[in-house]
Description:
Blueprint: H1 20-30, E1 34-38, E2 43-48, H2 49-57, H3 84-94, E3 98-103, E4 106-112, H4 113-119, H5 125-141
Helix pairs in contact: 3-5, 4-5
Amino acid sequence: MKITDIMTTDVETCAPEMSIQxxxxxxxxxxxxxxxxxxxxxxxxxxxxxDIVIRGIASQISxxxxxxxxxxxxxxxxxxDMSIEDAADLMAEHQIRRLPIVENDxxxxxxxxxxxxxxxxxDDNASLVLEEVSESEDTELH
Length: 142
């Protein structure tokens, strides 16, 4: 099964000049934990709720600052041609919960750990990824 079968395609993006406060409000409005950042043509990065807390608030960056100051620009991305298993392996290897799917530097979708869990209940892909990501978070807390 291909990743295109489970990825979310109507992904809302935000511009890099939007403020951290605007991004946080957008996350609340959309009920999401991350927002891809795009210049309208290509994917520049992604901002998570954790980025806002750790790189923004804890680092005393003004909430009026552009989100470009805290975004993750070195992203792991997937392609439309990859299988669900390959996506799960990539997410586990890099200990990430969200995998942007990119074609020609443009965001075409995103896959979350939740997407894997819902779609792949009979397989161990989601549990493997969750286990890997959880180990990473446990290590960060100690």
